[in-house]
Design a protein that fits this description.
By secondary structure, this protein is of the alpha/beta class. It has helices at residues 29-45, 59-62, 74-83, 96-99, 103-114, 136-146, 165-173, 177-184, 200-203, 291-309; strands at residues 2-4, 17-21, 49-54, 88-92, 117-123, 149-153, 188-195, 209-213, 223-230, 236-244, 257-262, 273-283. The protein is built from 10 helices and 12 strands.
Length: 311
C-alpha cells in the first residue's frame, strides 16, 4: 500500500481511483466491509482503491474536551489498512486550518486534485468539512458536476447494533475484550516502551514488562487478563496481564500501570517497544489480606491464562 502525506503534492493516478474517507479508528469489521465495497468497485473500474484518513482524530481539534481515546495509533492504523488490500492511503494533516475548510474545498483539493476520484464509497451518514456541512447528498451533487459516482453504504450491523468505534470503546470500558475482539476481527492491542518499575513483580516471583501506553490510547477496564505480548521482531509470547493501580500496595489510588507477565520467559525486555493484546478478562483487581494470598491468586491467574490461551 502506498502512503501519501501531502495532498498538494499528489499526482492523480492515470486511471483515477475509488475513494473512501474516514478516521478508521480500529479498522474494525464495519470499516473492512466498507473497504471491500471500495475494492470491488475499483476492480470493476480498473483503478486503485484508496482511503483518505487523518493524522489525528479530527475531534482532538474541533472538540478536544470530548475527543475519544484511540483504538489504534496512526502507525497501527496504516498497518491494518494495508492488510485490507487497499492500494493507496492518503494521510491528511488535520489542524485548525483543515477544520475550517469547506466540504467543497476538500472535495476539489483532496478527492479530485490528489486522487483523481472516479467513485466515492462512504457510510450513508458520513459528514465532513467545516461544521460537518458535507454529506452524501453534497458529494452526489459535486459528483454530477465533477464526474464521479457516490455510494452511501449503510453501516454493517452483523447481529443487532451497528459496528462502530464507539461501540467497541464501550465494550472495552466494560472489560468485555472478547466481544470487542469479534468486532475488531482481532484482540485489542496497545503498545509502548517497556520501562523499569519498582521490581516488585520479580520479588514476588512474577516479573512483568511495564508497558508505557500513550495517554490518548483506549485501554480496557482495570483488571487481570489473559493475552499476548508481541516483541518488536514479531515474536508472540503468552502473558498474564495486569492493568490498574495495584491496590495491594497502594492504599490510595496509585499510577495506572499495564504490566505483562510473560509465561515461560526469562529475558531482558527493557527499552523495547512491546505490544499487548487482550484476549480474555480473568478478574477485577483486588486487595488481598496478605502478600501470600496475592501470590496464590497470581498463580491461579497464570493457570487460567494458560487455559484461555491454550498454552
Amino acid at each position: 500500500m502506498e502512503v501519501l502525506h501531502h495532498p498538494g503534492d499528489c499526482r492523480p493516478p492515470a486511471a483515477g481511483s475509488v475513494v473512501t474517507i474516514g478516521a478508521f479508528d480500529g479498522v474494525h469489521l464495519g470499516h473492512r466491509r466498507l473497504i471491500e465495497r471500495v475494492r470491488s468497485t475499483a476492480q470493476e473500474l480498473g483503478c486503485p482503491a484508496a482511503a483518505v484518513t487523518f493524522d489525528r482524530h479530527p475531534a482532538t481539534v474541533v472538540r478536544p474536551e470530548s475527543a475519544p481515546a484511540l483504538l489504534t495509533d496512526l502507525d497501527r492504523k496504516l498497518e491494518l489498512l494495508a492488510q485490507t488490500g487497499l492500494d493507496v492511503a492518503l494521510v491528511v494533516h488535520f489542524d485548525e486550518d483543515r477544520a475550517r475548510e469547506t466540504a467543497e474545498e476538500f472535495v476539489r483539493e483532496v478527492l479530485v486534485g490528489c486522487l483523481g476520484v472516479r467513485a466515492v464509497v462512504v457510510g450513508h451518514d458520513f459528514h465532513f468539512g467545516y461544521k460537518r456541512a458535507g454529506d452524501v447528498p453534497l458529494l452526489q451533487a459535486m459528483g454530477a458536476e465533477l464526474d464521479f459516482d457516490v455510494t452511501g453504504v449503510h453501516l454493517y450491523t452483523g447481529e443487532g447494533e451497528a459496528v462502530s468505534s464507539t461501540r467497541i470503546r464501550r465494550l472495552l470500558a466494560e472489560g468485555r475484550v472478547a466481544e470487542a475482539a469479534q468486532l475488531l476481527t482481532r484482540p485489542h492491542q496497545v503498545g509502548g516502551r517497556v520501562t523499569r518499575g519498582d521490581g516488585r513483580g520479580r520479588q514476588l516471583g512474577f516479573p512483568t514488562a511495564n508497558v508505557q501506553v500513550a495517554g490518548d490510547i483506549c485501554l480496557p477496564k482495570d483488571g487481570v487478563y489473559a493475552g499476548w505480548y508481541r516483541r518488536p521482531e514479531g515474536e508472540r509470547r503468552p502473558a498474564a496481564i495486569s492493568l490498574g493501580r495495584r491496590p495491594q500496595f497502594y492504599a490510595e489510588a496509585g499510577t495506572r500501570l499495564l504490566e505483562a507477565h510473560l509465561l515461560d520467559f526469562d529475558g531482558d525486555l527493557y527499552g523495547e517497544e512491546g505490544r499487548v493484546e487482550f484476549v480474555e478478562r480473568l478478574r477485577d483487581q483486588e486487595r488481598f489480606a496478605s502478600v501470600e494470598e496475592l501470590c496464590a491468586q497470581m498463580t491461579r491467574d497464570v493457570a487460567r491464562a494458560r487455559a484461555a490461551l491454550g498454552v
